[in-house]
Write a structure and sequence with these properties.
alpha/beta, 8 helices, about 15% strand
Length: about 270
């Protein structure tokens, strides 16, 4: 990997292990958190920590956080608050003036921007989010594209699994769950990290890339097995004639980035 320094805005469930992977390669990492007690944890991992709250931090903090980094990873979801769409855009807009004209940006987006079409969804399609959180993410995608152009790559990740995110807990004990016959879209954290690294290694800038496991088991099969595996009562599923779904196509990630998924089959992770 040719970069020497990277800034990761949001060192949480995904951002912290991502930062650790970079430091292991000898890359200087600046990582942000909004929680003062996490500062020491970042330091222990060899990360240069920043207590950074968007819209509240000073010019000096923004400038120092981004200084000398060739790549910036924006990695935090919208908060579920009133005016979520406007608030998320305002948060992102607060840091944009401090990103210089040579820095590349990776925005960790979500496949929630896609609508259910009962077919594969591709990066080239016109997106029509169905939930407010999806609209917020889509609005930030547009904002970043307008201001950064081909210095921006968007990675749209499917449902995140791995480590402490046990899917068996998500629907355990629930009754009459809808869309049991719908295929699911998930991605393991290892593959999220792998895709981000591949974008940088391949210099794949100006792109939108889906991230999802190769296989898409049915919802009822996946969550039933996952609950049983950890000793919980599996959910029951409603009988439905009409099922709404989308299948996140990951072909571009494998062809453009030459990426091979570490965890292609979600059922084998249960």
């Amino acid at each position: 990997m040719t970069i020497k320094n990277i800034s990761i805005l949001g060192c949480g469930w995904l951002g912290l292990p991502l930062a650790t992977e970079f430091t292991a390669k000898g890359i200087g990492v600046k990582g942000s958190t909004t929680t003062p007690t996490k500062i020491s944890k970042l330091q222990e991992k060899g990360i240069n920590p920043y207590l950074l709250k968007l819209e509240e931090s000073t010019k000096e903090i923004y400038t120092s956080f981004l200084l000398d980094s060739e790549v910036i990873v924006i990695n935090f979801p919208p908060k579920r608050v009133p005016n979520i769409i406007t608030r998320y855009q305002e948060q992102i807009q607060s840091i944009l003036p401090y990103i210089n004209a040579t820095q590349k940006v990776i925005f960790i987006s979500s496949t929630s921007v896609y609508q259910n079409i009962n077919d594969k969804v591709l990066e080239t399609m016109v997106i029509e989010p169905e939930k407010e959180s999806g609209h917020a993410v889509a609005a930030v995608e547009r904002l970043l594209q307008e201001q950064l152009g081909d210095r921006l790559t968007i990675i749209r990740l499917s449902g995140l699994i791995g480590e402490d995110r046990l899917p068996g807990r998500f629907l355990a004990n629930k009754k009459e769950v809808k869309n049991g016959n719908a295929p699911i879209n998930v991605i393991h954290r290892d593959d999220c990290i792998g895709l981000i690294q591949a974008v940088i290694e391949k210099k794949a800038w100006g792109e939108i890339i889906n991230g999802s496991a190769d296989r898409h088991p049915l919802r009822k099969e996946y969550y039933t097995q996952a609950a049983i595996k950890i000793g919980l009562t599996p959910p029951t599923f409603a009988k439905q004639e009409e099922v709404l779904y989308k299948i996140v196509d990951n072909t571009k990630s494998k062809t453009l980035l030459e990426y091979t998924y570490i965890h292609p089959d979600p059922l084998k992770l249960i």
